[in-house]
Amino acid sequence: MNSYKLFLLVLVLMSVSCKKQLEEDPKGLINESFLATPDGLSNLVLSQYYQSRLVVEDLRYLGEYPSDIMTHSLNSVDVNDIAQLKVNTMPTLPAFSDSWRHLYAGINNLNFGLKSIKEKQLDLPIIEGELSFLRAWFYHLVVETWGTGAHFTIEPTTGIVTEGNQTTIDAFYKVILGDIDNAIAKLPTSAIEAGRITTGSAKAMKARILLALAGYSEDIITKSGIASKAVIYTTTKALCDDVINNYGYKLLDDF
């Protein structure tokens, strides 16, 4: 009988002790609420510098590999197919799907950061400038690689997106030019840390963007917000002269 009573007492104590759940405050949690704060956005922009390294790693697939300035060995199927322009296999190569994934992963994060700054009216000019520069660059690579077949959005998304939003070339360039102008206005003339983006970097990028836009028709150019192709060339020259003469850049010494 005593054992039975002791058993009941233990059950009662256990039921009482389990009513109150442990309240936890995980300090290492990274979520949207944290990322939308100044500290979170600072971490977000640093992560996009790393994301840009993934993009640069894939750039060789998006540019010079199919041209006559490249040669290749026999050790990589992807490289061989790209260099030989085997159009029947190129669309399914991991090299291209990786490029797409890295670019759009970055763009989605950049969309989130820029939207958070705007909605919360945060005064973070350098971070905003860096995010704007990176989105302009990423979208420039996207539109010059996939054209009107690319997905376009300036809204951050969560989860897997299975439907693309195709649009016109000028729609891409309106965002690209708006972002790069914002970057020029917000970035510092000297890097706050070695390797960080500056006004000079943004002006050089704008010159590159404008030269790419010059390859399109006058109609696309004007719809992108530029008066004419002639304006593109005069603006590009002025930007290049400014970068060369005023930002301390120089060619590397001979070796």
What does this structure look like?
The chain has 255 residues and is mainly alpha-helical. The protein has a single domain (34-245), classed as Serine Threonine Protein Phosphatase 5, Tetratricopeptide repeat. The protein has 10 helices and no strands. The chain has helices at 2-17, 32-35, 38-62, 77-83, 94-120, 125-146, 169-186, 199-213, 218-223, 229-246. The longest helix has 27 residues, at 94-120. It is globular. The relative contact order is 0.08.
Question: What is the strand and helix layout of this fold?
Answer:
Layout lengths: L1 H16 L14 H4 L2 H25 L14 H7 L10 H27 L4 H22 L22 H18 L12 H15 L4 H6 L5 H18 L9
Helix pairs in contact: 3-5, 3-6, 5-6, 6-7, 6-8, 7-8, 8-10
Provide keyphrases for this structure.
255 residues, Serine Threonine Protein Phosphatase 5, Tetratricopeptide repeat, single chain
> How far from one another are the termini?
95 Å
Low-confidence stretches: none
Q: In CATH terms, what is the architecture?
A: Alpha Horseshoe
The amount of helix comes to: 55-70%
Shape: globular
Structural class of the helices, strands and pairings?
A: mainly alpha
Strand content: under 5%
CATH topology grouping = Serine Threonine Protein Phosphatase 5, Tetratricopeptide repeat
The CATH class is identified as Mainly Alpha
